[in-house]
């Protein structure tokens, strides 16, 4: 029996035991649960008592509302309940984001996606999970075993931690029956924690996730995996700078690093920060694509060059964890992008229904995921040197320009008051568009004016000795040849010294041996 199958059977047994324990507790407290819902002693549902009565009859509702943070029971239980529900939703979202990608890619490329397992292929993620459980779990002989096992978890866990500081909606007021307080309503948050340094938390955790990729490549004892890990580290450094700079834009506008405050500042559609600084939003989305190693920035796992990159030696459930990390990363960065630039859970017609806020948030995240998949289906993978050049020479200057844009608009708006901020921001937007159009036209004209060099006249093809490039190449060659010539001279001198101690018979025997070796080689 394979190790993965044993783990799967153990997890199933733990789940079965947990289900039995929950059922036993429910049966033991069935009377209390029925009374809480609104059933009387005869088993009849009373529509004016219990939770049903509180929800259906406004006049029966208790006006007393207690903050969840003020009650020890609610403080202990609600985070566990919310975390369990949120984990279920995000893991299910990971499974079905794979199906979304395969179906959307098939639609964009005029193919038939997965449509056999279950109705319309909706059971395909479950089939993929079962298949990966039964796959053999291999480990290279020269791998660092502990690091090899820990690397997938180091990749997955920080991605889940990103969502901890993103509120999924405003506070909810729910019926909660506390014995010490009586029948009251509790105001509970729709998030785990809304830290006042949430933006810094996001920047720090997205950097930690790269360590999983680097350690996976290093511990695999594989040159292709190591190259993929090195690419991941270089890519993270270059694109993390532009990512952090663009996050400074909403922080400056709101004056707070709490993601909840940033979301609350975008209540109306026209208040979304993407309309106040679209350049920062575009740079942020591109940087997040590069952070998650998604196409066209998936150079860490380029199968044409690196077989599979840092995941080359992984199989079974460890490989599944890396795939899970990739799609969870897509969901996490979509949550960040929607929260800081696209209004978060706010949508004007639905703002009066806080219980629908997570649904609105999820719908926006699905739209961003569709955009990522569309980019993958449209753009080819770019060359690695151009990827790095784009990060340092294009993304960082544009991010600095976006930060300067917002800073100038805020300073002028604060000094002049009224609608000066909107006016200045609009003027800068027009200037940026004009500058970008002028730069693109200039580049296109320069390319059109360049005359193509015929192949028979190309110095790279003919080897003609001209140009600065030829001179530099030969200068470097001469510098390298000097130590090599010195080493060759020393080797010959040592061979001459060794010949002084040999007799003529030994010299003849050595020469005859060398002659025999040459004949054998021929």
In short:
Helix content is 68%, strand content 3%. It is mostly helical and 522 residues long.
Q: Topology of this structure?
A:
Elements: H1 3-28, H2 30-37, H3 50-56, E1 65-67, H4 72-108, H5 124-134, H6 145-162, E2 172-178, E3 182-188, H7 198-219, H8 223-254, H9 259-264, H10 273-276, H11 278-291, H12 303-306, H13 316-341, H14 357-378, H15 384-416, H16 420-449, H17 459-462, H18 467-499, H19 504-521
Parallel strand pairs: 1-3
Antiparallel strand pairs: 2-3
Helix pairs in contact: 4-13, 4-14, 5-13, 6-7, 6-13, 7-8, 8-11, 8-15, 11-13, 11-15, 13-14, 15-16
Structure, described:
The longest helix has 37 residues. The chain has 19 helices and 3 strands. It folds into 2 domains: 61 residues, no CATH class; 381 residues, no CATH class. Strands 1-3-2 form a 3-stranded mixed sheet, with helices on both faces.
């Amino acid at each position: 029996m394979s190790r993965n199958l044993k783990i799967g059977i153990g997890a199933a047994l733990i789940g079965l035991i947990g289900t039995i324990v929950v059922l036993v507790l429910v049966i033991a407290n069935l009377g209390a649960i029925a009374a809480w819902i609104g059933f009387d002693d005869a088993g009849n549902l009373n529509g004016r008592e219990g939770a049903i009565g509180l929800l259906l009859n406004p006049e029966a509702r208790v006006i007393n509302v207690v903050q969840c943070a003020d009650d020890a029971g609610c403080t202990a239980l609600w985070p566990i309940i919310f975390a369990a529900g949120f984990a279920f939703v995000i893991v299910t979202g990971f499974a079905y984001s794979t199906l979304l990608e395969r179906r959307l890619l098939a639609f964009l490329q005029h193919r038939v996606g997965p449509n056999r397992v279950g109705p319309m292929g909706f059971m395909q993620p479950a089939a993929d999970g079962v298949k990966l459980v039964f796959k053999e779990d291999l480990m290279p002989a020269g791998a660092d075993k502990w690091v090899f096992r820990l690397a997938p978890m180091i990749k997955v866990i920080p991605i889940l931690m990103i969502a901890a500081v993103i509120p999924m909606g405003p506070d909810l007021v729910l019926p909660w029956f506390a014995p010490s307080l009586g029948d009251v309503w509790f105001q509970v948050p729709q998030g785990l924690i809304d830290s006042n340094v949430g933006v810094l938390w996001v920047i720090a955790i997205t950097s930690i996730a790269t360590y999983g990729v680097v350690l996976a490549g290093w511990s695999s004892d594989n040159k292709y995996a190591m190259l993929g890990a090195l690419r991941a580290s270089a890519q993270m450094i270059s694109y993390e700078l532009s990512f952090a700079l663009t996050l400074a834009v909403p922080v400056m506008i709101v004056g707070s690093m709490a993601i909840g405050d940033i979301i609350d500042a975008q209540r109306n559609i026209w208040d979304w920060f993407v309309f106040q600084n679209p350049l920062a939003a575009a740079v942020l989305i591109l940087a997040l694509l590069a952070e998650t190693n998604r196409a066209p920035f998936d150079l860490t796992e380029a199968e044409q060059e690196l077989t599979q990159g840092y995941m080359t030696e992984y199989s079974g459930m460890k490989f599944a964890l890396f795939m899970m990390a990739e799609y969870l990363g897509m969901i996490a960065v979509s949550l960040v992008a929607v929260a800081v630039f696209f209004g978060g859970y706010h949508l004007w017609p639905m703002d009066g229904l806080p219980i629908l806020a997570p649904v609105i948030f999820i719908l926006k995240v699905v739209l961003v995921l569709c955009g990522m998949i569309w980019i993958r289906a449209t753009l080819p993978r770019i060359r690695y040197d151009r990827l790095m050049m784009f990060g340092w020479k294009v993304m960082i200057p544009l991010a600095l320009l976006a930060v300067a844009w917002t800073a100038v608009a805020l300073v002028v708006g604060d000094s002049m008051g009224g609608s000066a901020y909107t006016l200045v921001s609009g003027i800068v937007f027009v200037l940026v568009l004009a500058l970008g159009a002028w730069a693109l036209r200039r580049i296109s004209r320069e390319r059109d004016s360049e005359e193509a060099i015929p192949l028979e006249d190309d110095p790279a093809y003919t080897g003609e000795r001209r140009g600065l490039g030829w001179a530099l190449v030969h200068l470097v060659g001469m510098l390298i040849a000097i130590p090599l010539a010195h080493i060759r001279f020393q080797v010959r001198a040592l061979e001459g010294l060794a010949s002084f101690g040999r007799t003529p018979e030994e010299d003849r025997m050595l020469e005859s041996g060398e002659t025999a070796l040459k004949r054998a080689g021929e």
